[in-house]
Structure formats: structure tokens, C-alpha cells
Design brief:
alpha/beta, Alkaline Phosphatase, subunit A, 29% helix
């Protein structure tokens, strides 16, 4: 028990309470002792609350990582020993949806716990609604030190949105130091040109490299480890890797980890997508020539896997730093990606699509209060991480579109949603239930329907089958109603 001077209810209030009880008619010593016992119990409870230790929270996010690129979750070709251990140490959400599969909007949803429709970041170059509470703010209110490391891809800087400190911050704005570079194939780089690390005073650090570098995951991990080793509890550490986003640059020592000839193609590989899905001419789709060839897709996958394995080794360093600290038993570790990537699936290269290889994200949670070795099939969103982490930390609940997944973690519910919804600009909309997925393409007036239980790779479009007309109508109506309610800022029915 702590110092009595720290108790929320001062001792003189106890005295007044007893005096009032006596004046109210406590006729004998037994009644007085009963009142005193109840009062002292309340004082003890108040003291214990004052001494409650909040858990540290370390949130690690990858960029463009498919949900099927973790060995422990079924990929026998990739090497991810540290993420595998995290899977064993904690619980995994197998059906989590990012909702909007491009970097800025997806991260905006995670930061606010709200849909891009609500937070006003539905695409690149948008500003988060300043009226919304952001992820670090409830932790700041509880006395946490809040840190941000790595890639920042929303408006302003992390400090604008509540983070108290940065370390290893990586942003745009280093164009004057940029020099043309090539990727692992020798092709000119088109992404992250001019991105640069910055110090705590927002000053650029070109000596750490401009644009992506083969060793960038280690630089970001170094910053995170420095925070872990120097922080006092409690702290929130938000770590954002750039890996495995293109340009694919194979880290030193990982050049021969994967043989392209031995890498299996995605089972739903196609040479081309059968129609314009809304991003046919986008930058991501131009990273590989169309039609896609098996040789180029395998080479891309080998490089992609190497970058993921290198990031995995850096995540291992971060976990080791946590385990070595004196706060290891009170630290929540969370891993996820902002969205997936096609990498040849369905004839696509990029992320702007509604298929499961892209719209789903791996979410792993481990630490105090998290069941070990649990694989959860309930529906979830990336934006649920905000209220879930607040709930796990024991902080007051927040108002947002996301829902705490703690009831699912603890077996009190199988799912917090009946369905999930996805969207990309004005060209794609998706609704996903336990069995069915309906994708609408308004610009080309196209619809797809997949039976996910019997066709998890989404290879057989059932939309033209007349026996599914009523199912399509019902799913489309649910999707339309959900979108309408979001636009009017009402609670979505599920």
C-alpha cells in the first residue's frame, strides 16, 4: 500500500464520514466498527488504484505486407522466426481488414479509430479532422510518454497529432539530397524519392541515407531500441517500418536467402487482371510489365521475402530489448501491417484492390492479459487497435468507429462485427461476411461475388449465377446502408 498522503480520499474525510455516521444514529460499538471497516476498505482500494501500473505498449507496423507472409501462419517458403515466436506468445486476428488499402488513409484510420469517411482522409494529401482524438492522446492523459519512430505518412508531423517525442523519424522533404537510384533489378526507383530521417528537432539527417536504403529497417529498429532502453514506465512506442514497400532493395547478407526459382507463385497468380479495377495505370501496377510473367513475379517475391526477413530480424532485436528490460512483464507488443499487396495475385502488382491478399492484415498481440497461441477468426478492422489498446491498458474508453476486440481476445464474443467493409476511392467497394464477399466497381459497373469458404483464393466469380441474385441484392443493400450511415455520422448497424 502507498503513502496515505497520496490517497484520493484524504483521512480527514474518513473522520468526517465516521462522525456523520455516529450523528446519524450509530448506537453501539459494533455498528461503528462496521462503518469504520467499510470506510477503511474504500481507502485501501483508493490507494491501490493510485499504485496501479499501466502497461507499456509497443505497436509495430510494417508497410505493404501480405497477410500470408508469416511462416507460423502457413507460409512454408518464408523465414520469419521472430514473428513466429510472437504468434506463439500471443493471439492473432486472422480476419482483420484494413478497410482502405493505401498507406495514408489506412494509417489515418489507425490513428483516429475512425473510418476515412469520418476522419476526412480517404486518399493521399488529406488532413485528419482535428476534432478527433488520436491514438497517443488518451495515453498522454494517463501519464504515458508517447514516442513515434520511423515512417510518418499523414499530414504535419507526429507532434501535431499528440506524440510527445520522436526518434528515427522518417518523412518526405529531403529532395535536394536525392540522387537517382535503382532497385534490385536495376530499374529506376519511383517511390520514396527524397524521403529522409530527421532528428528530434525535425532537422534532416542525410547521412543516414536519402530514399529507402537496404538497411533502413535496422535504422528504425535502432531508434526504437534506444527508446525502450532509456524509457521509464509507462510508455507508448509506435514503430513504423517502411518494409516491405517498394523499391525492393535486398539487405546485405540477405542476397541469397531466397532463390527465385524455388519461390512458389501465388496460387491465384494471373498474367493480367480481367478488367480495369480502378488503378490499372497506377504507379504500383507499373512496377512490373503487363502481362505479368512467372519469372518476374518470382524474382519480385524473392526480393520481397528477403526484405520481410530482414525486417523480422529487426523486430527480433526490438523484442529482445523489451525482454531484457525490467519492464518485460508489463509490456504489450502489437504487430500489424497497414495493408497487403498483390505481388502477382489476380494479375495485379499493387495494393489498390479488395482481394484478401491486400485488404486483410496480420494483427498479432502479445503480453500481459493476452492469451497465448490463440488464432481468432472473428471480423476486425485495423482501426479497432485504437480502442483495443486503450481497453487493454485500462484507460477510459474512447468514442470512435472502431470497437475494442478485448471481448474476442478473452472468449466473451466470437466476433464484434457481422461483416466488414472496404473501399478505395470512388472505384471499389467491398462487403465481407463469414462466407461471402461482394465487390462493386461503380466506375465500370462491375460486380464480383466470392464464396470464401469454398473459394478462399477468390478465383471463381459467382456474380452471374442467377441463384445468387437475392444474396447479391441483400449484400449490396447492406453495403449501401453502411456507407450512407458513415456519411451521416451515425453508428453503423452490424
Amino acid at each position: 500500500m502507498g503513502n496515505i498522503d497520496d490517497v484520493k480520499y484524504p483521512l480527514n474525510d474518513v473522520t468526517l464520514f465516521i462522525t456523520d455516521a455516529i450523528q446519524a444514529g450509530a448506537q453501539n460499538m459494533r455498528q461503528l466498527l462496521a462503518v469504520l471497516a467499510i470506510t477503511i476498505a474504500g481507502v485501501c482500494l483508493a490507494v491501490d488504484r493510485c499504485e496501479t501500473k499501466y502497461p507499456n505498449v509497443v505497436l509495430v507496423i510494417s508497410d505493404d505486407q501480405r497477410p500470408d507472409t508469416i511462416a507460423a501462419l502457413g507460409n512454408r517458403s518464408i523465414k520469419t522466426p521472430h514473428l513466429d515466436q510472437l504468434v506463439q506468445r500471443g493471439s492473432v486476428f486472422l480476419n482483420a481488414t484494413c478497410a482502405n488499402p493505401i498507406c495514408t488513409p489506412s494509417r489515418g484510420e489507425l490513428l483516429t479509430g475512425c473510418t476515412g469517411i469520418r476522419n476526412q482522409v480517404f486518399d493521399f494529401g488529406r488532413t485528419l479532422d482535428p476534432a478527433l482524438k488520436t491514438l497517443p492522446e488518451p495515453f498522454n492523459d494517463a501519464g504515458y510518454t508517447t514516442w513515434y519512430c520511423g515512417k510518418w505518412h499523414n499530414d504535419g508531423r507526429p507532434g501535431k497529432h499528440g506524440y510527445r517525442s520522436t526518434r528515427g523519424l522518417y518523412t518526405g522533404g529531403g529532395g535536394k539530397w536525392w540522387k537517382p537510384q535503382t532497385d534490385y533489378r536495376g530499374h529506376p526507383i519511383t517511390g520514396y524519392k527524397g524521403w529522409i530521417f530527421r532528428d528530434q528537432n525535425d532537422q534532416p539527417l542525410p547521412k543516414l541515407g536519402v530514399g529507402l536504403t537496404p538497411n533502413i529497417s535496422a535504422t528504425i529498429a535502432d531508434a526504437a531500441i534506444d527508446v525502450i532502453e532509456s524509457s521509464t514506465s509507462p510508455y507508448l512506442l509506435h514503430v513504423n517500418f517502411t518494409a516491405p514497400h517498394d523499391p525492393l532493395l535486398i539487405p546485405r547478407g540477405f542476397e541469397n536467402l531466397y532463390d527465385p526459382a524455388s519461390i512458389p507463385l501465388p496460387e491465384n497468380f494471373q498474367a493480367d487482371h480481367p478488367f480495369d479495377h480502378g488503378n490499372r495505370g497506377g504507379r504500383d501496377e507499373n512496377l512490373l510489365p503487363t502481362p505479368r510473367t512467372q519469372q518476374l513475379v518470382k524474382a519480385d517475391l524473392a526480393a520481397y521475402y528477403a526484405v520481410i526477413s530482414h525486417m523480422d530480424s529487426q523486430i527480433g532485436r526490438i523484442i529482445a530489448a523489451i525482454d531484457k528490460s525490467d519492464q518485460a512483464q508489463s509490456t504489450l507488443i502489437v504487430f500489424c501491417s497497414d495493408h497487403g499487396l498483390a505481388m502477382g495475385s489476380h494479375g495485379l502488382r499493387g495494393k489498390q484492390n479488395m482481394y484478401d491478399h491486400t485488404i486483410r492484415v496480420p494483427i498479432i498481440l502479445a503480453g500481459p492479459g493476452i492469451p497465448k497461441g490463440k488464432k481468432l477468426k472473428g471480423h476486425a478492422y485495423l482501426r479497432d487497435l485504437f480502442p483495443t489498446l486503450v481497453d487493454l491498458a485500462g484507460l477510459p474508453p474512447i468514442q470512435c468507429d472502431g470497437r475494442s476486440q478485448v471481448p474476442v481476445l478473452h472468449g466473451q464474443a466470437s466476433s464484434m462485427y457481422d461483416f466488414t467493409v472496404g473501399y478505395f476511392r470512388n472505384s471499389q467497394r467491398m462487403i465481407r461476411t463469414d462466407q461471402w464477399k461482394l465487390i462493386e466497381y461503380p466506375l465500370v459497373k462491375k460486380t464480383q461475388l466470392f464464396d470464401l469458404k469454398n473459394d478462399p483464393l477468390e478465383q471463381h466469380d459467382l456474380s452471374i449465377a442467377p441463384e445468387h441474385n437475392e444474396l447479391k441484392r441483400r449484400l449490396s443493400a447492406q453495403l449501401s446502408q453502411w456507407l450512407k450511415l458513415q456519411k451521416t455520422h451515425q453508428t453503423s448497424p452490424q
